[in-house]
Each structure stands twice: as C-alpha cells, then as structure tokens.
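Submission sheet (multi-component)
Chains listed below:
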Amino acid sequence: EDQVTQSPEALRLQEGESSSLNCSYTVSGLRGLFWYRQDPGKGPEFLFTLYSAGEEKEKERLKATLTKKESFLHITAPKPEDSATYLCAVRAGSARQLTFGSGTQLTVLP
Amino acid sequence: KAGVTQTPRYLIKTRGQQVTLSCSPISGHRSVSWYQQTPGQGLQFLFEYFSETQRNKGNFPGRFSGRQFSNSRSEMNVSTLELGDSALYLCASSKDRVNEKLFFGSGTQLSVL
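Outcome: structure written.
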C-alpha cells in the first residue's frame, strides 16, 4: 500500500526565515510526486510535479526537490502570504488516483 | 478561464438522508475525480470519471456513487448518510487521463447531524 508521510505537522516561521518541509513516501513504481497548497476554505492549488530522483522545480520563493525516498519543499525568505497548508501526493504503479499526505500547516509571522 | 465549480458550497443533512453534489470541470477538461477530506483521514480518493465512464474507484462503501454527463459535468451521490460522512468533498478535473495536473474546486462542506 502506498504511504505518504509529511513532517512537521505544523511550522511557524518569522518572515524571512527560510525552512524546508519534508514528504517521505513508500510506493511501488513512482509515477509522479505532487505538491499542492491549500488555503482555508479552498481546494488544493497545484504547485509542482516531480517525476524522477534529482529533479528540481522552482516557483517564486518555493523550490521542490526529489530523491528516491523523499521530497523537500524549500521556502526561501517566506512572507505572511505563504501561510497555508502544503500537501504532498504521489501517483504510483498503475493507479490513476493521488495518495495524499496529511499536510504541513505553515504559518509565517510578520 | 473559469475554474472548477462545485455546488452547493455548504450542505446540512440528517442521518439517513441522501445528498447529491455537483461539479462543473474547467472547460475542455474531460476527466473528473472526487476526493473526501476530513481532519482525521486527510484527502482520500473516491472515484474518477472519464468519457461518462467510471475508470477508477477508491475504498468507499457502495453508498457513495457518481456519474458523469456528456458535457463532462459530474455528480456524486451519498445515500443513507452517516455522521462519519461529514467532510469536505472536493472535485478535481484534468484535461485527459494522460495529463497529470489536477485542478481542484473549493469543495462542498457536508455536515451530517
């Protein structure tokens, strides 16, 4: 059974204080690892897809990286508007659906 | 370009009733998936529809069902509601079954009393 574990569950940062969120996975045949951002009362918003170990993608203050066992979402010099829950999900084997982790709730204080 | 639209936004029902939720995908998107989100279980896959056919189903009881229409709009139905069915129900669309990127709606918040 595919498993996705995110840590920490919650993270509080001061504005400008860089950090990383972790997503570790156990799957058979990874076909894609996805990062989403979810704001309160809204659905998840797509950020990145990573397909193979060593791959990196960047968007503004966010950078996602992938190894064979885990993915990191690095947040550089975060701003209060980066506060949200960040979700990691995998698609593996012949499955079409995504298996989600429980998320990291990020709070950036001004 | 309009995003994924889900109606209603909020719903309150009592145990034993049934409910129908609606999802309009992004124009041109033909694949629609449904997920249930709860604080305890997180996001869990319900089912996926493409070309009016259910292609994939998650581990939920038969009380949960869905369908897709020829214009790609989708509905999901939950019969004989239980307290544990209280959740945020999210619909996601993608262009086709090859495109990996899912676009989510804001969800329908269902409360079962």
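Remark: DSSP finds no helices and eleven strands in chain A.
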